[in-house]
Design brief:
The protein is α/β, with parallel strands linked by helices. About 15% of the residues lie in helices and about 45% in strands.
């Protein structure tokens, strides 16, 4: 058995606004959209956005708004890309005692995502 990839299913209040954010700010591309859904991917990561206009936003769930920790290669380049695009950096980049260099973002919907890269031994 092998896990090949992951897909994250997220409720958003404004599907068009959220999809545009993932494309324009986070560098994802649309894979499919229709019937209240918008699927986007970047590399092996897929985000499946579902419109739930009347539900509470992720901003209201506070610490439960985290949905992903994404292992990347060349984290400093990704950090620079997101800073240049005005992405809301929730946790600044830094080396952690558990052997990761990481930073976190806050999406337009209030979902939080961490990005990390293993430090060299």
């Amino acid at each position: 058995m092998e896990i090949l990839s992951t897909r994250y299913v997220l409720a958003v209040q404004d599907l068009a606004k959220s999809a545009a954010y993932y494309e324009q700010k986070l560098g994802f591309t649309t894979w499919w959209s229709g019937e209240g859904w918008h699927f986007l991917r970047r590399g092996k990561m897929m985000v499946m956005l579902g419109e739930c206009a009347d539900d509470r936003s992720a901003f209201e769930t506070r610490n439960h708004s985290y949905f992903a920790y994404v292992d990347v290669k060349d984290i400093d380049a990704l950090y620079a890309e997101y800073k240049a695009k005005g992405v809301d950096i929730h946790y600044e980049i830094g080396d952690k005692p558990w052997g990761q260099r990481e930073f976190g973002i806050l999406t337009v919907d209030g979902h939080r995502m961490m990005f990390g890269e293993a430090l060299e031994d």
